[in-house]
Amino acid sequence: MAWNPEQYTLFSDHRLRPALDLLAQVPINPPSVIYDLGCGTGNVTSIISQHWNDAVVVGIDSSEEMLAKARGDHPSIEWKQGDISNFNPTSKGNLIFSNAALHWLDDHETLFPMLLSNLRPGGVLAVQMPNNFNAPSHQNIYELAQTPKWIDKLGGLVRPAPVHNINWYFDLLSPLARRINIWETTYFQVLEGKNAVLEWTRSTALRPFLQTLDEKSVDTFEAEYAERLLEAYPQRRDGSTLFPFSRLFIVVQTDED
Ligand SMILES: C[S@@+](CC[C@H](N)C(=O)[O-])C[C@H]1O[C@@H](n2cnc3c(N)ncnc32)[C@H](O)[C@@H]1O
């Protein structure tokens, strides 16, 4: 799908915080080859690169729009266009980092072991993924898309929740790992402005649905969705909106040899 870097960076503080929480748990120092998969506009990649400034850092993303911003903002970092599901670098990494990207890919049973196989001995895979597919922000998109009015155009875009539970990842990854650190956090994000949750999902979960509609249908779909959102996430007396957001974190270190 096409990404919109401007819309995505509207909530950059909220989006950055889990990336920093993940980075704080990476147990190796200093890695020499680092890949940031699904690097987007590269703001997290740039923090990684400042943190380990002797390392070779490569940001990989499938979206040319996001990479164009990354290249413009951080010209000294290496950026590559590519699909994470085909990740097969010539030089294996000490650290593979991925913030808020792997939930866009299906089949994690194959994906995660494939990523681990691209690490050097003792290397680390560090991943953060939203785990809010059952939240009203997402369920209301899926429910609306499956109503008779929208199902022909949008029904096919509803996919099963791509992210599994903590036990599932632990059972998959612990036989392949020396150490595994896995946790979940719900951030109670305070958003400002009217239709704040709609503004948020416009750049992420809602995006594939809007992209298949013409302009008039976009307005209608958004209005129906916004009405449901206001019920699920009412604006507080001070004008803010509390938007609880669950995220799953996984840090896996492989054996030394
Ligand atoms: C929500 S953004 C996160 C960007 C960045 N990691 C951050 O923390 O700001 C998700 C990014 O994953 C990228 N992405 C999604 N599926 C991908 C795939 N199969 N291969 C490569 N990149 C992908 C998107 O293009 C987008 O830039």
Structure description:
This protein is an alpha/beta fold. It has one domain (5-253): Rossmann fold (3-Layer(aba) Sandwich), CATH 3.40.50. It has 11 helices and 7 strands. It has a 7-stranded mixed sheet with strand order 3-2-1-4-5-7-6. The protein is globular. The termini are far apart. The mean pLDDT is 95. Bound molecules: S-adenosylmethionine.
Question: In total, how many beta strands?
Answer: 7
Structural class: alpha/beta
Shape descriptor reads globular
The CATH architecture classification is: 3-Layer(aba) Sandwich
Mean pLDDT: 95
Overall tally of structural domains: 1
CATH-level-4 superfamily name: Vaccinia Virus protein VP39
Helix content: 25-40%
**What profile does the largest beta sheet have?**
7 strands, mixed
Estimated share of beta-strand residues = 15-25%
CATH class: Alpha Beta
Which kinds of small molecule does this entry bind, naming each only once? Answer: S-adenosylmethionine
Order of helical and strand elements: HHEHEHEEHEHHHEHHHE
Cα distance spanning the termini:
39 Å
Report the radius of gyration as a whole number of Å: 19 Å
Helix segment count?
Answer: 11
Question: Any low-confidence stretches, pLDDT <50, length ≥5?
Answer: none
**Which fold name corresponds to the CATH topology?**
Rossmann fold
Strand order of the largest sheet: 3-2-1-4-5-7-6
